[in-house]
Design brief:
Blueprint (H helix, E strand, L loop, with lengths): L1 E6 L2 E8 L4 E5 L10 H7 L4 E5 L15 H14 L6 E5 L1 H12 L6 E5 L4 E2 L3 H8 L8 H12 L6 H8 L10 H10 L3 E2 L11 E6 L7 H10 L3 E6 L6 H4 L1 H12 L2
Parallel strand pairs: 3-4, 3-5, 5-6, 6-9, 9-10
Antiparallel strand pairs: 1-2, 2-4, 7-8
Helix pairs in contact: 2-3
């Protein structure tokens, strides 16, 4: 079921399906809820799964100013609006920043979090850095940006045909404008989840691809070492969006973590 709900005076596009324990999926920067479909379509058979376009993305409202705290507050409001009970939250890249920030701010909100391709702090979005390092113009369109970062997102020797297949059925309906992308970039200026990471007492699973060129394994390791209750797994032959290349392995790792 897809719907638009209003939380924190922002319209948010949500889809949910299934029955059972609650699970929330959060996409990464410039993406959309549909990119989480490989996990959504699997877990709706055994969980009540919620996937949503975070503010500034997809079919959700796009305010001019966004922060990680806004995203964390939206996650809290979404959980309360939908009547979820201490959900498991799976976040990809920026979605992992949102999950970790929420766990730091709202200590009893979540039961467990899975951080995919994460990083604890940074000066700018790693997507923005990739463009800068390639002498790119920040006002490029999504297709051009995709060409710039392909080598950082996917394992070596990934073909264009494979990438097209990854996104088949997993692509959103809305392309962001240059101004909207600039607002999203600004939301990750000097972001830092490490300062308050000691607040996180719930179990955390960190998953990262061997060939993640945006948030490499060394960045997940920093988070892992700072947490009191965490497990970290490096997924071989996978890039930034590990459930594209290694869906069954990723699901197996998530299952063993949440069932423990």
């Amino acid at each position: 079921m897809e719907s638009i709900i209003n939380i924190n005076n922002i319209n948010i596009a949500v889809k949910q399906d299934g029955t059972g324990p609650d699970m929330v999926l959060i996409h990464g920067i410039f993406a959309y809820k549909e990119i989480m479909n490989p996990l959504f379509n699997h877990y709706r058979d055994s969980y009540h799964v919620v996937s949503y376009d975070v503010r500034g993305h997809g079919e959700s409202e796009k305010p001019g100013k966004i922060s990680l705290n806004d995203h964390a507050d939206d996650l809290k409001a979404l959980i309360e609006e939908l009547g979820l009970t201490r959900p498991i939250v799976v976040g990809l890249s920026m979605g992992s920043y949102i999950a970790l920030t929420a766990a730091e701010k709202y200590l009893d909100l979540l039961s467990k979090i899975i951080l995919i391709g994460s990083r604890g702090k940074g000066e700018i979005s790693l997507m923005e850095k990739a463009v800068e390092e390639n002498d790119g113009d920040s006002n490029i369109d999504l297709k051009q940006m995709g060409q710039l970062i392909t080598g950082r997102v996917y394992p070596p020797n990934t073909t264009p045909e494979q990438i097209r297949e990854y996104y088949r059925g997993n692509r959103g309906k809305v392309e962001l404008t240059n101004d909207e992308r600039a607002n999203i970039y600004a939301s990750l200026a000097r972001y830092d989840m490490m300062s308050d990471i000691g607040n996180v007492k719930i179990p955390v699973l960190l998953l990262v691809g061997e060939y993640d060129g945006l948030n490499p394994p060394s960045e997940s390791l920093k988070i892992h070492e700072a947490l009191s209750d965490s497990r970290m797994e490096i997924v071989k032959d996978a890039g930034h969006i590990i459930f594209f290349e290694k869906k069954d392995e990723v699901i197996g790792l998530i299952d063993s973590f949440v069932e423990k």
